[in-house]
Design a protein that fits this description.
Blueprint (H helix, E strand, L loop, with lengths): L9 H5 L23 H8 L6 H64 L5 H21 L4 E2 L11 E7 L9 E6 L1 E2 L9 E6 L3
Length: 201
């Protein structure tokens, strides 16, 4: 029996099951842009660089900090000045006490010499001379050596001319007599020696 080939029906080909139909390409749905929220609007509106107001605030803060440092420095300086004044006065008191204590033995020896005045006048003279030498030693220990040399050349740094003499046997400008001893040297001089000097030609 002859077989008849069934001709394909275009209509039937067009009618296919939904599952058999070719899927269209993926297309993302188009959504309209959303308006930014309140927070996003504030972030976008805030500029990255500081504006004039923020710069003025920074300058004002820097000025306040400098003024605070200046006041602290003035307070520290005033405290340092007061502390230095107290320490200086304390050092002066200590130095005065040390000097006075150094002269106490001298006064004790003077008292001892005067207590023997009626017994032996010669002993009193020797005692006073010893006390004088002791006082000179105290001044030398304090940094004020005695100057009472004769026969030396006049030195205006150590001598003060009180009178002059005309003596041809003595070199002019030589110290002939010391009327009052001097004590100290240079910046630590208590007083110059009062002397008589030979007259210059």
């Amino acid at each position: 029996m002859p077989s008849h080939l069934e001709e394909s029906d275009p209509a039937s080909s067009a009618r296919q099951a939904p599952g058999d139909a070719a899927s269209p390409p993926d297309v993302k749905p188009h959504h309209p842009p959303q308006s930014p929220g309140p927070q996003e609007t504030e972030d976008e509106a805030r500029p990255d660089a500081p504006g004039p107001a923020s710069a003025a605030d920074e300058h004002a803060a820097a000025v306040r900090e400098l003024e605070d440092r200046w006041r602290r420095a003035l307070a520290d300086l005033d405290n340092q000045r007061k502390r230095h004044a107290r320490e200086l006065e304390r050092e002066r008191m200590v130095e005065r006490s040390r000097t006075a204590a150094a002269f106490l033995p001298v006064l004790d020896n003077l008292e001892l010499a005067l207590s023997h005045a009626d017994a032996d006048s010669g002993a009193v003279v020797e005692g006073v001379r010893a006390v004088r030498d002791q006082a000179v030693g105290v001044l030398e220990q304090l940094g004020y050596p005695r100057h009472a040399e004769t026969g030396v050349v006049f030195d205006p740094a150590h001598h003060e001319v009180v009178s002059v003499v005309d003596d041809p046997d003595i070199e002019p400008g030589t110290v002939v007599q010391v009327l009052r001893p001097g004590y100290g040297d240079g910046d630590r001089q208590l007083r110059p020696a009062a002397v008589t000097v030979a007259k210059r030609e």
